[in-house]
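Reading is simple: each integer encodes one residue's backbone shape. An example follows:

___
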Amino acid sequence: MATFGEKVYKVVKKIPQGKVMTYKKIAALAGKPRAWRAVGNILNKNRNPNVFCHRVIRSDGKIGGYGQGTKKKINILRREGILIKNGRAI
């Protein structure tokens, strides 16, 4: 049986380029709808380049954290076609 962390990584790996998903939605899809903070903590420790953590945002549209810095996260998302205005994905 997969751990919650493994389930989170599996969900995040499936986010296509040009799309984003919230921590809350990932928690629900991984089987623990109220564990959005745990999702953030799990992704903060990720070192696998095939798990696209930069595609995960907050429920209010704000970009949220990123291990390599928020500026880098915003730049990657823009390159993938995500519109960012005032620190929010739109």
